[in-house]
Amino acid sequence: MSKNSKTPRPEVIRKALLAWWDQGHRDLPWRRTKNPYAVWLAEMMLQQTRIETVIPYYERFLRHFPTIESLARAKLDLVLKLWEGLGYYSRARNLHKAAQMVVREYEGRLPDNVRDLQKLPGVGRYTAGAVASIAFHQPAPLVDGNVIRVLCRLFCIREEPTQSAVKKKLWQLAETLVCPRRPGDFNQSLMELGAVVCKPGLPDCRICPLETFCLAKQKGLQAVLPKMPKSGKLPEYEIAVGIVFRNGRVLIAKRKAEGLLGGLWEFPGGKREAGETLEQTAAREIREETGIAVSVGPCLTVVRHAYSHFKIVLHAFLCDYLSGKAEPLECDAVKWVWPSQLKRYAFPAANHPIFARLTERAGVND
């Protein structure tokens, strides 16, 4: 932060930002309620996910699970199926675990304070602050990507916000700024400002309610702040999976509950090792995962997919069952299902193009 510039006063920032908020903001479904469960659900879904993507999932999820008790009673497979395509599936597993914990330990009512909220699986400091301030009117701060951008520009913070000392400073600023009378509205206005005005790249300073207070704007640095570390190239892995047929049915395997994509179903397979052909990879992985031997046939399709920290090129091979009993050796469960039943199970997004190719193949064979 610049030592030669006078920082804006919290009460002035609050007044300007809340006046801007009161003039109008985006009408989002979770802003039409103060139901703590609905607010919590929205905040869990919005983690690292765009608003326009979340809206239909949020609305469909609430139709199926209108209360925290109904979510706690549900089977995880159904929760994951409703989450299918939203990504970061640990959020769905944590949501389910947390709902059961709330019913068991808090009589079905979400805690109303940051400390107890953070005891719930998947609830960190940001989510706890959002729920506490929006649903329970507690003067709790929050810091997300949008807030980081606003604060770094407003206070001309030139260090990378990924540094621990800078993170601590940002949380201190957020705590100082939060309005004790309208904490939920203030926190939402701060996030809204970062989403629609103080955007990445070149912000629209002409319509910003904080333009006259913004130290970065005064110094002409608004387009270069916050200073973010350069991201490296994502590693890419080749994956081979088998669409294993036996008497017209297809073998699917359920991933172990913990870890990436935990609890989802998939076609058995895995990462290519050095010196292997893709066909050899598929046969080996199927044997190690389920205990059966297969004959690997032609490649049905190739799917490219990017996750947050790596990319994959997924090769799906048509395979015929040869011998052995399918067992969950390196997975939680295996099933032989009719191709028409695949849509009942929650699969990672990278598998969906395979469904389409199977449907086309069935049409050709008919």
Give a quick set of tags describing it.
7-stranded mixed beta sheet; 15% strand; Endonuclease III, domain 1; Nucleoside Triphosphate Pyrophosphohydrolase; 14 helices; 366 residues; 7 strands; alpha+beta
β-strand number: 7
> Which class best fits the helix and strand makeup?
alpha+beta
Mean pLDDT: 94
Strand content: 5-15%
Task: Identify the CATH class of the largest domain.
Answer: Mainly Alpha
Helicity range: 40-55%
Helix/strand order = HHHHHHHHHHHHEEEEHEEEH
Number of helices: 14
Radius of gyration: 25 Å
What is the general shape? elongated
In the CATH classification, which architecture of the largest domain applies? Orthogonal Bundle
- Summarize the biggest pleated sheet: 7 strands, mixed
The domain count comes to 2
Unreliable stretches (pLDDT < 50, length at least 5) are: none
**What's the CATH superfamily of the largest domain, by name?**
Hypothetical protein, domain 2
CATH topology of the largest domain: Endonuclease III, domain 1
> What is the first-to-last residue Cα distance?
69 Å
